[in-house]
């Protein structure tokens, strides 16, 4: 019978045959903070030699946060069975649906009346922007919430709808159920917001970032939504240039020539 043992973090070794090869550092920090706050709720799975079968991210996160011991199940199954065991640990983990995540987060908030959204984000060690999306169905009309529970729409769709007044959300739901993509919903929602509010325009918009970098968008007088569209297009083109190995000067010249040709 398999039993849970406490093993020091130095006992473990990564498996070179593990299909998971990389981990996001910010994600590891959030995971480590959660391990510190709530403990390691799921034991790691390892060979008697310390080679990890399941729990590589938990091990990395524990090391970052100085956690000395981890609950572990040791298995001496034949080497040929290890790849199958590792995949089984993945396939047996069923993620919560978008509706289940929304309701669980809402329930925690309801049980802590004095909490703000940032407090819940800290408690769950989630990025606040992620929590904003998870709780977006609470700002949607009941029809959207029911569609989410039925699986007809996703959290991202609800997030797009939540930005609109309730009186305009039904139309967006009909658009989604008719087969519209998430990007189409976002564009439709932006258009609705732009037409429902007085348009304030400027020929030059400067955004000072916390890193010290300033982003300046200039041209024909534009609204904030039009500035966002322009920045998204610029980011898309910049990423494409980076992937092609272009330098900054070449990218600027390329975009300038393209604008002139238009």
List keywords for this structure.
Arc Repressor Mutant, subunit A; Conserved hypothetical protein from pyrococcus furiosus pfu- 392566-001, ParB domain; 262 residues; alpha+beta; 53% helix; single chain; 4-stranded mixed sheet; two-stranded antiparallel sheet; 3 domains
Summarize the structure.
With 262 residues, this protein is α+β, with helices and mostly antiparallel strands. It folds into three domains: 4-91, Alpha-Beta Complex (Conserved hypothetical protein from pyrococcus furiosus pfu- 392566-001, ParB domain); 98-196, Arc Repressor Mutant, subunit A, CATH 1.10.10; 202-261, no CATH class. It contains twelve helices and six strands.
Describe this structure in words.
It is built from 12 helices and 6 strands. The chain has 3 domains: 4-91, Conserved hypothetical protein from pyrococcus furiosus pfu- 392566-001, ParB domain; 98-196, Arc Repressor Mutant, subunit A (Orthogonal Bundle); 202-261, no CATH class. Helix 1 (25-38) packs across helix 2 (56-64), helix 8 (155-162) packs parallel to helix 10 (182-196) and helix 9 packs antiparallel against helix 10 (182-196). The N and C termini lie far apart (72 Å). With 262 residues, the chain is α+β, with helices and mostly antiparallel strands. The strands form 2 sheets. The protein has a 4-stranded mixed β-sheet with strand order 1-4-2-3. The longest helix has 20 residues, at 224-243.
């Amino acid at each position: 019978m398999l039993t849970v043992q406490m093993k020091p973090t130095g006992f473990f070794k990564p498996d070179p045959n593990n299909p998971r090869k990389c981990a996001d550092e910010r994600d590891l920090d959030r995971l480590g903070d959660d391990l510190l706050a709530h403990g390691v709720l799921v034991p790691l799975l390892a060979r008697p030699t310390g080679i990890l079968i399941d729990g590589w991210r938990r091990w990395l996160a524990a090391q970052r946060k100085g956690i000395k011991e981890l609950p572990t199940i040791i298995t001496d199954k034949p080497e040929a069975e290890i790849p199958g065991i590792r995949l089984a640990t993945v396939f047996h983990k069923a993620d919560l649906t978008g509706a289940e995540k929304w309701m669980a987060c809402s329930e925690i908030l309801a049980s802590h009346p004095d909490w703000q959204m940032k407090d819940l984000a800290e408690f769950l060690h989630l990025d606040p922007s992620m929590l904003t999306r998870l709780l977006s169905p609470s700002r949607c009309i009941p029809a959207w919430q029911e569609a989410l529970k039925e699986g007809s729409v996703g959290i991202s769709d609800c997030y797009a709808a939540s930005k609109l007044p309730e009186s305009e959300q039904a139309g967006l739901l009909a658009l989604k159920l008719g087969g519209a993509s998430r990007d189409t919903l976002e564009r439709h929602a932006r258009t609705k917001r732009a037409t429902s509010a007085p348009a304030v325009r400027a020929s030059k918009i400067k955004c000072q970032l916390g890193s010290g970098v300033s982003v300046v968008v200039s041209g024909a007088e534009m609204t904030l939504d039009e500035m966002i569209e322009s920045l998204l297009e610029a980011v898309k083109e910049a990423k494409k240039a980076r992937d092609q190995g272009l330098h900054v000067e070449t990218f600027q010249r390329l975009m300038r020539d393209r604008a002139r040709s238009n």
